C-alpha cells in the first residue's frame, strides 16, 4: 500500500516504522486471508491483539519487544488513536500480525467490526496496569473476553499484569492472586468457567515481557511439539544441559527442550544475543550482522559454557553445557548439523501446507466473487 492512497491519519506517529493501519483495503485482504474459514487463517498468519485500557502500556510493549525501543523512550510515546497493525514475519515459525488497539474501542460502535477481527485472532493479550486501580480494567477484560469467546472460542486469552517493576515480590504475588481470582469469579458468575485465562507478571524494564511474549507466541506454533522433540534429542545426544531456539531480532524463544526454564538462564541468552549482534555491528564486515557464519562461545566462571550457533537466517540456537562436555565439540557440531537439517525439513513441510492453503482459499474466494457477480448481473 503506498502512502498516497492511504487516508490521512491524525497523529500518524508510526508511519516511519513500517506499521500499517487497518482500513478497507486491509479488511478486504483479511477476508481473502480468512478464506471464509477460521482455522485456515489461524494457521496462515495468526493475529495477536493487544488490548486494555488507555495508558496500560500496550504500545510500549510492542515497541520494546519488536522495535528495540529502550524502555525509557516509551515515556514519550503518544497515545494510539486507531488500530495499528504490524506484520512480524521474521521466521517461518514466528509469523504473525500484532494489532495494537487504542484504549477506548467501543464494542457498541457499529463501525467497529469486532467479529471480523476476533475471527482471525490467535491470541488476545489484555494488558492491566498493576500500578493503577484495576477495577475498570477487570470489567473491560470481562467484556472483551466474553465477546471474543462468542465469536471465536479458540482464541488463547493472555492477561499481562503489567508495570510490576514498581512492586515488591510479595506485592506482585498478591496482585496476581487478586486479579486472577476476580477475573475468574466474574467469568464463573456469567457461567463461563470454561474460558481459560493465563496470567503473566510483566514489565518492559526487565526480561519478563520477552518471556511472556515467548510463551504467547509458542502457543501459536503448531509445530512446537516437533521442535521440542528435536531439541530433546539433540541435547541428550550431545551432553548439553539446556537449549533454546531464539528468534534473534525479537529475542523471543520459540522453543526449548522439555526441562524447566529459569529466568536467569533466559536473561543470559538474551544478553549473549545482544553481545553477538552488537560486536558484529561495530567490528564486523559491512553487511548483515547475523549470517551463516554467526557463532559465539562464552565460558562463564562457574564451569558452564554458552554456545550460540546460526540455525536459519532469523533463528539461533543457544545452549548451556558443562566445560567437560564442550571438549566433545566435534560431536556437538555434528549433531547440530543433523538438527539443522531436521529443522529445515519442518520448515519445508510447513511452507508447502501454507501454499496449498493459500491456493485453496484464493480459489474459494474467486469462486465466491464470480458467483456473486453472476447473481448481480442476473437477478432471476
Ligand atoms: N513503570 C512502567 N511503566 C511502563 C511500562 N510499560 C509502559 N509504561 C509506561 O506507561 C505509559 C503508557 O504507555 P503506552 O504504551 O502509551 O500505553 P497504551 O495507551 O496502552 O498504548 C508510558 O509512559 C510508558 O512509559 C512498564 O512496564 N513499567
Ligand atoms: Mg497505545
Automatic annotation (TrEMBL):
One of its GO terms (cellular component) is lysosomal membrane. It is found in: Cytoplasm; Lysosome; Lysosome membrane; Nucleus. PANTHER family: RAS-RELATED GTP BINDING RAG/GTR YEAST, RAS-RELATED GTP-BINDING PROTEIN D. Keywords: Cytoplasm, GTP-binding, Hydrolase, Lysosome, Membrane, Nucleotide-binding, Nucleus. The keyword Ribosomal protein does not apply. Pfam families: Gtr1_RagA (PF04670). The lineage of its organism: Eukaryota, Metazoa, Chordata, Craniata, Vertebrata. The keyword Cytoplasm applies. GO terms for molecular function: GDP binding; GTP binding; GTPase activity; GTPase binding; molecular adaptor activity; protein heterodimerization activity. Belongs to the GTR/RAG GTP-binding protein family. Guanine nucleotide-binding protein that plays a crucial role in the cellular response to amino acid availability through regulation of the mTORC1 signaling cascade. It catalyses: GTP + H2O = GDP + phosphate + H(+). InterPro entries: Gtr1_RagA, P-loop_NTPase, RagC/D. SUPFAM superfamilies: P-loop containing nucleoside triphosphate hydrolases. Residues 1-20 are annotated as: Disordered. GO terms for biological process: cellular response to amino acid starvation; cellular response to amino acid stimulus; negative regulation of autophagy; positive regulation of TORC1 signaling. It comes from Periophthalmus magnuspinnatus. Residues 11-20 have a biased composition (Acidic residues). This is Ras-related GTP-binding protein. CDD domains: RagC_like (cd11385).
